[in-house]
Specification:
Number of domains: 3
CATH topology of the largest domain: Rossmann fold
Number of helices: 14
Oligomer: single chain
Shape: elongated
Amino acid sequence: MGGGPELGRVTDKRPPFKYSALARVWFSDTDAQGVVYYGRYLPYFDHARTEYHRHLGADWTALQGEFVMRASQVEYHAPARFDDLIEAYVRVSRIGRTSVTYECHACLLPDETLMVTATQTLVLVDPARRRPVPVPEADVTVALPDRAPLVVKGTYAAAVGAVLAGCRHVFGYPITPSTEGAELMAKVQPMLDGVFVQAVSEVATVNMMYGAGGAGKRCITFTSSPGFSLMLEGISYMIGAEVPGVFVNIMRGGPGLGNIAPAQADIKLACRGLGHGNTRAIVLAPATPQEMLDSAILSFELAFRYRNPVVILGDGYLGQMTGKVCLPDHMVVPGIPEWAVYGDHSHRGNLICSIELSEAGLERHNLALDEKYARITAEEQRADLHRCDDADVVLVACNTPAQLAKGAVKELRERGLRVGLFRPITLWPFPIDALREVIGPARQLVVVEASEGQLEDEMRLALSHAEVHGPPITHVRRQGGILPSQEEIVEHVLGLQEVQ
């Protein structure tokens, strides 16, 4: 809906109505006898209905169709005249497969004389095909009371965020160091009329997510590096079928079974290797338990906005680290999107499928995916900049290494060096637009990561695609479950100053 103030009001004067809007009778509304022309009551009801939608936060402009009037039954009880003040009441009396029926009353103020009653049915129509389409069941935002902050692990914080985002379907197979997220979900989902299923494997998990996401349900899984690898085929199917879902990967040391210590060696996998074919997914890289919660909430919004999986990458330390987490002031009760294969009459005829046997058809589908990826790249880049305005040396880091890099920035600033921290929050799309602004005055970029250079590769690739020629790039790296330390970062930057 458009901006500006709401022109209606919540009311309990005329049950079962709970909303109304005021209208003043204009001279042009009246006929030769001085009373309101019978057809003018319909715009009064249209005005009330529009403000009612605005009050509910319903954005009808985002629908894949437009509402048209199918039927309007009106009864006239008393006349209104020029300059009278009318209160038009409106409520939804029925939501059908493709239609919404409203009950409307028009009353004369101040004595509430009933003048007109009406029942109006609007049908949602696809303007291209000129055929009715299912009416979506919209998400509803519910206000939450103020709560004291929590002190929880990163995995717990992500689970809490998912619950507040309306996730009631959780599938998973236990794997350290991610298991606590699934463990908490197994406890709370039954109390919320939700579902937790411990699958027989990660392969089974991702296919359960395909089914739940295809039905329009918000679903999540918690896994770690070897388990994430096993899910890649199913993730490719979900991307191909445009099915939303959230994957929390708490990265650990590899390759192979490796160990359960923290690592960042799945960045390449999440950004460039999500199964076979033309696959991309938004990859979020939180750095604190608070951001784990915030990322979980955001990930569902993004997954359903773009009909695509979203990956949250945390490292093993972040998954187990305890921190202060503040809860939001609202939660989401999700509806059912119009594209879902939900099993009811209103969604009959929908199809979720990634197969396309026609070469031309598959090419068209890939081109449509490319357009979606381009839109995501343009609109969803996210980064956090810390003291970068005057920085000669810019550290680039994400997840827990970003916290260590932030400590190094403080220490180096105290020594008189102009050092800043560029923290990509989305690893794909990489926030090249923000980085472009930072590297102008910078003389050196230093990538800090717990891998052999996967974060640096993403940055270099983004710079290359954007045709940006930045300053020299060096790095501080550790592998095998060891994180770069603050001391190592400080020592590296001081070494650069000696060379210069």
